[in-house]
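Hi! If you just cloned this repository, the fastest way to understand the data is to look at a raw example. We've pasted two of them here, unedited. The first protein comes first, obviously.
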Amino acid sequence: MTAELVRESSRQLAFPPHLLGYARDLTMAWLLSYDSPNTRDAYRREIERWFRFCAEHDLDPLEARRPHGDVYKRWLELQAGQPVPLKTMARRLAAVSSWYKYLAEEDAVEFNPFENVRRPKINRKHSETTALTRDEARAMVEAADKDHGPARLRTAALIRLLLRTGIRISEAVDATIGDLGFARGYRTLRIVAKGAEPKIRRLPVETTFALDTYLSDRARRAGVELADLRGPLFASESGKPMTRGQAYELVVRIARQAGIEGKVTPHTCRHTYASIAEEAGVPMRKIQLNLGHKDASTTEIYVESRERLEDDASQIVESAME
């Protein structure tokens, strides 16, 4: 946690003009207390959302009380224009509560005003994400191959990597070319899993070919030998790492071009990997290790995400009532 890292975090976080001095320093310390960059980014976005609410209502964040938290919940729904998913709402309230808890422990505020704000009750074993079928997964790969523009090869490689290894979108965009390797004759990718030690994943043959094709084309356009190519595994046109937002939008667009109905996100690809693996007879323990889940029950949620639609007895009941 160097001074440079603190300064960089400060530049990225939009503070209210009056939130200076000790409270501001504590806010940066609170963010930096989280080891995961993804967690820091998520909490940074949520606390800025709270700051926007405070600015709109002429509220000093350090003077907030519980009723402000209750009003904030309704404000979030008004901003979204529709009911906010329960998990999203719970996460947003938890982030602000974590900030106040940190400040209260350091005597910057008297108490945590969000401590008793009612949060949605979440069933930890339920997920609203539904895995794709094999045909839908194939359709996404075909749509990626038919994508247009100079980024077509990158699209083909990224979609295959997400669907066929189940890695997180953050793991894909954070990877560098140097993370590619070989082990016992297999092509590998070193990834830093969420909250865990780095791990080596084996890359399937066709996914490897798509990656090599994309990187070879990128090296040619950069005027260097493939062996000398450096930088992020998936780069933007400027050569900078592809952002999670860009990758997210790409997945959504390719799913739409594939004609897949319903919401498809990078997390859908992760569920799809687990579902197809289980369907193909891969042991649950192996799927759990591949996905980096600490708890097997989390893996079961991924596997069951598609089955709960296919196994729904509503059609049987309707037919019985005819």
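Ok, and the second one:
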Amino acid sequence: MRTESNIVQVAMNRHGVAGRRGFLRAVGLGAAGLAAGGVAPLGLTDLLTLRADELRKRQTACILLWMAGGPSQLETFDPKPEAANGGGTKAIETAAPGISIAQGWEKTAGVMKDVALIRSMTNKEGNHQRADYQLHTGYTPTATLKHPNIGSIAAAELGDSGFDLPHMVAIGGPTAGAGFLGASYEPFVVPNVQKPPDNAQARVPVDRFQRRLGLLNRLEKAGFEQAGGADRVRDHRALYSQTSKMVLSPRMKAFDLDQEAAPIRDAYGRTPFGQGCLLARRLVEAGVTFVEVRCGGWDTHTENNQRVAALAGQVDPAFATLINDLKSRGMLDRTLVVWMGEFGRTPKVNPNAGRDHFPRVFNVALAGGGVKGGQVIGGSSGDGTEVKDRPVTVPDLMSSICRSLGVDAAKENQTSIGRPMKIVDGGKAVGELFG
């Protein structure tokens, strides 16, 4: 006789993801089997809940390495040394036969068998704010609705509500918010990895701390809530509940990088970004669902080559060490690592030896989370001005991230005004990523 767990497992592929039709078909067969065996059939909601519980048990996670400003594809993972627009960048061989990347990324080259490159990303948004929003949410910004960060989506879909750390953490600065999902899924921002989060320790005995929270709740209920502020009180309570659990959590030690051995800290690099990647690994290991690590400075309108070389000196060892570290701990298969920015840079070098905004063609790197490494998907033209083959859009990329994490990209969430909104509107997961 099939158990509830069996039904859920039948509905999932080897990445823990069910096709919409396949899952519903498995639900129907499973429910019928249970009924035939004399057990009351499960409803669809029950089975969806079981599937979500299975994913939570796997502790599927994502680490987004965000290159704020828009990294040049020509000086990172799509070099064109023979092209007139190549900018003098040399290509180096990698551990994956036939794949070359730009000089300055030697450590990443060494882990290329675990990395998949998409060289045919294409988009229309060339404005920093709009593109940043779109690459985080899958939607172009509007004046009437704030869409949720993909990290907040992952927190809502996969995070255990009883967990005592935030399920969405942004390291190195603020990022796109939770939008209509509400305060419970807002990113927890860690501006400085060199010290623990501010106000993250209880400064009074625990029982006194709890009494203060109880008094706050009574004051809000007697005043603001009854005067028409119920929605704001609800969000405020959710935030305080989450924060108080965090303050009292023994898992807060995950933020203490001094617990790591000096050699591993050195391998990541003693830079804010390098130590941010180490913190990301520690947080995922502690059970956090989504961590974004931000590296600014990629808006290279001037002196592109020199500035990218300096940035690569920080990002290259951190990126490669993160992959190796996750792999050595048996965490890479369940942790998706995504390297990207909001767009690429123009193939033509400008008069200031820089490259300008260029969303038409750019690249993204992915590793772990069921992604098949050692491959290149799509390509750009010889001069880098066009997608040559296999164009990949932002919705395609977002659908791929959802597939890796086990999130149904077609699921509809309700906005604050009751409007259904898909997690990803359109697009199709890039099947080649998963072999």
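That's it. A detail worth noticing about the second one: Residues 1-40 have pLDDT under 50 and may be disordered.
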